[in-house]
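Encode chain A's predicted structure.
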Amino acid sequence: MLIKEDDPERAIKLLRQAAEAGNDKCLASDLEPFVCAGLESAIQLYKDVVVAKVGKKACDLGRLIYEKEPEAAKELFELAIESGDEYGATFSLAGIIADTDKERACELYERSIAAGDKKASPHNLAKLVEDQDSERAISLYRMAIDAGDDYFATRSLAALIAEEDPEYAVELLEKAAKAGNKDHLYDDLEPLMRDGCESAIDLCVRDVIPQNMMMANNLGVLIQSRFPDKAKDLYELGFAAGDVRYAGSNLASLIKDREPDRAESLFRQSIAAGDDRFSKIKLASLIKLTRPEEAKDLLRQAIQTHLSKDEMNEVGVEMAYLDLEEGKKILQQAMDAGDRRCAPCNLAHLLLANDACLAKRLYEEGLEFDEPEAWCGLSCILRDEEPDKSAECLDMLHGVANVEAPIGFFLEFVALADRAAAIDAAVYLAGNGFGFARRKALELSFGSRYDANTDLLEYGQALSGEGGLQWRVVRLMQDRVLLLSESSVKSMAYADGVSSADWDGSLVRRWLNSEFAKSAFGGIEDGASRILCASGDFVTCLTPEEAESFACDSGNANLDCLDSKARSKTAWWLKGTGNSTMSAPYVNEDGKVGWALSLVKHGVRPAIWLAIDVGASDASRF
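Encoded structure for chain A:
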């Protein structure tokens, strides 16, 4: 053995001589380094003496030479099996032939299991059969785990049962981690975490992230849609650990609405760390209303980098808010780069009012991808010329989950090019089963005067001189909206006992169209210019039919109203249509429509028709 490195062939000759002299007790271990080195004379000596003496030893030799001589190893395993090795040789040969002779490999693993191998063979056999017989595979994996295989079988069983029993899958992966098998833990946990398994997320945070803090960002991205708060904590960890570029940027995107100043700082740090694309685009979006010129510069800088087609589309969208024509050009560039899904729809939104034919062609491209915005735009374009196809598009829209987001973006983007067209589209959609579009129409038409949270519109001056009048929307039409004051503005009799109690001769009508109109609308910028005359009146009251319809449409069983001081419920007058000198229609304190003596004082709730947009009564349809 002293000369084995300097003269291996002579060393083998000496070992042969020793064996022939009867000294072969340690021959197998003495030959092992020579066999592993591929020395043919050593392999032959092993066969001639060790294997010839004990046939099962062929398995040991086969394992030593397998990597260099797989076919020779296969023959040795066969020899060992013939010599009665039902444990190791069957297992080893099954591993060699599993890809080429799956049936025999399964049989060999079964023999190895029967011979007492309850750990490795069950695991490998389960791998072979799990696609065809998952129940058997589960049983085999559990056999291996019971025999002590916490390293491999736990991972394999976890992958197999993850969909049916995610919590048990996590337990198994935790067991594998404790056994030291953490190299693939994140990959094993990823599908579970993507499906929202919190115990999987917790295990990853505990056993993966501390070993590699840069993975915090990856995990945050994976779970952000389901667990934004946990994602935020992960981004914070990654950022604190030095991941300024990615974790910092993602953290900024997550908090930009709540903490815009910090988000801006994080985006700028990410840009300084080398992010020339994502953070510049997101920062531009964040500051576009307050610093439009800087936002444009950031978007133009981003374009100079190698943007993907999706990123180019995003730049086009953001630029459209700042420069409509430049935004259109960038969206066209995104289409030229291969974006056939989003950019065509976004460009169509901007062309819808002025080039309906081209917009229609672009929307039709989006139909291939079942884009809700494409159905939305096409329905608006085709509603007059092809009503059946327009209705089909609406039907498709009604089948979309969370459809409010795409319709909201559609209306907002159309408004960049033509606000009147966007309002018209919103009213159309609101009238076809998408009630949330009604609020978008009001936001676009009245801006900050309309509060979407309370669904109240402020218009005109309160008679007290403090604040504005608050109105409730009763009916929304293509070019106008009927408003009803939120509360009573005055308590008065309907008639004076001399004039008729019908509407034309009522005290209420005279007061609303003189004193009230002058006080409420005389001091605002657009004054009465936006109020539309209805049947000779600028200010009116609801008819009984309108009141009852409003109660049904609003989902409110009654028409309760507070008095002018907002202290208590009050009855209020409606617009009479008869010739009675004694009574007029009203809504009582319980919110029910009825009739009351016209000389009695009740509340007055003015109603007005407003143009849905300045000049909207003449608004064109696309």
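Residues 507-521 form the longest helix (15 residues).
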